[in-house]
Amino acid sequence: METFGFLIHPMDMDDIAKKYKIAKKISPKVIASVIKRRRPFVMSEITGIRSITGKEAIGWFIAVPLLPNQFFDLEESYVVEKIAKACEVGRKEGAKIVGLGAFTAIPGDGGREVAKLTKVPVTTGNTYTIATAIEGIKEAARKMGIDLASSTLAIVGATGSIGSACADVLADQVNELILIGRDTTRLSGLEEGLSKRTKRTTISTSLSAIRTADLIITVTGAVDSVIKPGDIKPGAVVCDVARPRDVSELVIRYRDDVLVIDGGIVQVPGPVDFHLDFGLPKRMALACMAETIMLALEGRYENYTIGKDISIGKVNEMMGFAKKHGFKLAGLRSFEKKLTDAYINKVRENALFSGVTR
Ligand SMILES: NC(=O)c1ccc[n+]([C@@H]2O[C@H](COP(=O)([O-])OP(=O)(O)OC[C@H]3O[C@@H](n4cnc5c(N)ncnc54)[C@H](OP(=O)(O)O)[C@@H]3O)[C@@H](O)[C@H]2O)c1
User: Fold this and answer.
1) What is the C-alpha to C-alpha distance for residues 331 and 278, in angstroms, rounded to an integer?
2) What is the CATH number of the domain that holds 232?
3) Are 247 and 227 within 8 A, CB to CB?
4) Is the pLDDT of residue 23 over 90?
5) pLDDT over threshold 60, residue 341
6) Domain-embedded: residue 68
7) Are residues 344 and 201 in the same domain?
8) Is any atom of ligand 1 closer than 6 Å to the C-beta of 132?
């Protein structure tokens, strides 16, 4: 039997209150200080994973008790050590590889420092996340009648590990590329590397730059939502890969003329039971978790995706593993709900009323 662990952390106070009801009665400041000191622990066992090749795997969710902002506000060495301790909890449970979920994948140079402090191989899961984000945005563009080759694509969080790899893969498939980040020097370096392969590339540190984009991949490490209803042009598709989300829920409430899809949601093969409600329907997982599971099924117990640079060769390898083991994109989803063709057609219609011609 192949085995893996996967690290998770609470996304907000509501997540903490789901496990500890008493948390509703305590001030957020006190909760933050208590969970900061809490040790990582096994949250649940994951059973029933069965590849279409017949291979099986079991795993464990390991909780890293830290809130999103604590991953950035606390001293990095403390955070990295805590993540490494969580990996050791997984190893002692029997995991032969551990996936670093959500913000546990970011500190210490994207898992590199964590890998030095634990005896179990680790992976951030970013490689397969990139593959599914690209597959998802292409599928959504097709359904919205957007021609990829003549489109303007914006990437928010373009200087990050996932953002820069998405830019690299899609650079020569679109008409114009807009790279958005916070650091002009890093953005310029990225632009320089890509500009020979794109018809037109621009950089910006302002989110207002996404207003001309037909397609947007957003994948920042921001703790709060960064994309608001007024930022997006009618008829555009936004693929939100970030966790916590980059797109404000207000976008869904006030903009019925744009399509927002969840990036990186994958259907896992077999009668899977996560024994934990993490907000997705049965048998569905985030792509980063799916990467960890596939590496276990392959017996590839090695540090796979670590550091900020992602190899395009590995993105293709992951897509091969997905096909071999029966992992696939879980259709188009938005804020955890499945998107029907009727809904997408309605969004297209609304965009036409807003003056979009396609
Ligand atoms: N759906 C999935 O399966 C999945 C899998 C893995 C990761 N993720 C999520 O993907 C996101 C990015 O991961 P990553 O590994 O690519 O992270 P990363 O390498 O740290 O990159 C983060 C990017 O976001 C930018 N950024 C950070 N804080 C920001 C803010 N407050 N406002 C605007 N931009 C900001 C950074 O800009 P600077 O260059 O200025 O720092 C950088 O470009 C995270 O939310 C993570 O949880 C999702």
Assistant:
1) 18
2) 3.40.50.720
3) yes
4) no
5) yes
6) yes
7) yes
8) no
Number of domains in the chain: 2
**199 shares its domain with 339:** yes
Say if ligand 1 is within 6 A of residue 8 CB.
no
Same-domain pairing of 208 and 344: yes
From ligand 1's centre to the CA of 93, what distance in Å? 30
* Ligand 1, pocket-test mutation among 100, 182, 227, 240, most atoms within 8 A of CB: 182
E strand or H helix at 81: helix 76-93
pLDDT (0 to 100) of residue 358: 57
172 and 302 in a single domain? The answer is no
pTM of the model as a whole: 0.90
pLDDT score for 320:
96
Mean pLDDT estimate for the chain: 93
- Measure 205 CA to ligand 1 centroid, in angstroms: 15
| Residue length of the chain | 358
Looking at the fold, whether 140 and 244 belong to one and the same domain comes out as yes
Tell me if 107 CB under 6 Å of ligand 1: no
Count other C-beta atoms under 10 Å from residue 295's C-beta.
27
CA of 47 to the centre of ligand 1 (A): 30
Q: What pLDDT, in 10s, does the model give residues 163-215?
A: 999 999 999 999 999 999 999 999 999 999 998 888 899 999 999 999 999 99
- Asked if the model's pLDDT at residue 25 lies above 90, the reply is no
> Does 247 sit in the ligand 1 pocket, CB within 6 Å?
no
Q: Classify each residue of 86-108 as buried b or exposed e, where b means 16 or more C-beta atoms within 10 Å of its C-beta.
A: bbbbbbeeebbbbbbbbbbbbbb
| 43: in domain | yes
Q: How confident is the model at residue 353 (pLDDT cuts 50, 70, 90)?
A: confident
Determine the structural domain holding residue 338 and report its residue range: 132-264+332-353
Which atom in ligand 1 lies closest to the alpha carbon of residue 287? 3
Residues 105 and 205 in one domain: no
Residue 102 C-alpha to ligand 1 middle, in angstroms? 9
Nearest by Cα to 106 from 245, 307, 313: 307
